[in-house]
Amino acid sequence: MVLYVSQDRELCVALGFSLQYIRLTVFCWLTAMTHDMYTTFRENVNLVPVADPRIGSVFCKYSLFAWGSPLVLLAAAVVLQLRERAGHLLDTSGLSATNCWFLDHDAYMYGFALPVLCLLLADAFYLAKSAVVIRYTVSMQVDKRVRDKMRRKRRLQLCLFVKVAALIGSVAALGALAKLTGSNAFWVAFNVGHGLQGIAVALCVTCNCQVLKIYTRTLRRRHRRCPAHYGAGLAGKPCKPSTDLSKSTSLQLLTWEPAPDAV
């Protein structure tokens, strides 16, 4: 986030268009990922993913969309900016007040706000279709354990995309409200939300993948582990046999202590 008011007109205009391009790529990649999730759920009805031989061409298509579409929209925003400023692209009146975040009304609304709204609608469409596909593919599984595991895993992935789309969509909505109303409250909320957006997305991914649960489970198991000569562990629970003996190749650990009784 820019923390100063740029006095250089060229730098201010470059920041305005660069930030708009970066924000557009975020929404385009989110749309590409939701579409890929829907395609994967539709074509793979098994819990174990199947390697797609067309993964290289598919990735190239997604990259062309996610990196190329923002360039087209950015070019349209430049044209609208030139038209609104009567050909004076380096006129930064109105940009310096917002630290070069926003461009003029037409360049922002038609070059960013409306495309983002269309992308969010596309995200909602693919998320809804993914939920329907999950319901049908899960019902096709015969084994109850496999059915429950597939439902849990795919719902986790679906909920992750829902949370990310809601988060970045809310931040973009605050920016649109700040642009339309000129309210300082919306402007401050947009800056704070945009600054915390990356951390919030990282937390969503971490909690969704249950990374913290894995660590706490490992620490709990270590806490309950006790030496072999103890009869019981903490809280009266018996200690689980250590797997170090079976994994060791040392000959000293293969001896009987104490020696077994003669038969």
Automatic annotation (TrEMBL):
Keywords: Membrane, Transmembrane, Transmembrane helix
Membrane spanning stretches: 64-82, 112-138, 158-178, 198-215
Keyword Transmembrane: yes
CC per GO annotation: membrane
Chain ranges of the G-protein coupled receptors family 2 profile domain: 1-134
Subcellular location: Membrane
Pfam families with a match to the protein in the record: 7tm_2
Gene Ontology molecular function: any one: G protein-coupled receptor activity
PROSITE patterns, A to Z: G_PROTEIN_RECEP_F2_4 (PS50261)
Bilayer disposition of the protein: Multi-pass membrane protein
Major localization listed first in the record, in broad terms: membrane
GO biological process: one example: cell surface receptor signaling pathway
Protein name: G-protein coupled receptors family 2 profile 2 domain-containing protein
Keyword DNA damage: no
